[in-house]
Specification:
By secondary structure, the protein is mostly helical. It has helices spanning 2-22, 30-59.
Length: 60
């Protein structure tokens, strides 16, 4: 559940940063955006690995 919340939060942050960039807002930071994107992807990857492990365990 924690990884789902992390992924959702990071997605929201990325969307907000992209919205700022589209409006030409000066505080947009590519580094910050990439950091949130990396956190989101890491959380999603943990969810995938966990789900795959559960499927493997039940199929065995």
């Amino acid at each position: 559940m924690l990884d789902e919340a992390i992924a959702a939060h990071c997605t929201t942050k990325c969307e907000r940063l992209l919205d700022l960039a589209k409006r030409g807002h000066w505080t947009f930071s590519t580094t910050e955006y990439l950091g949130w994107l990396a956190l989101r992807d890491a959380a999603n990857l943990r969810l995938i690995v966990r789900a795959t492990g559960e499927l493997t365990r039940h199929a065995g």
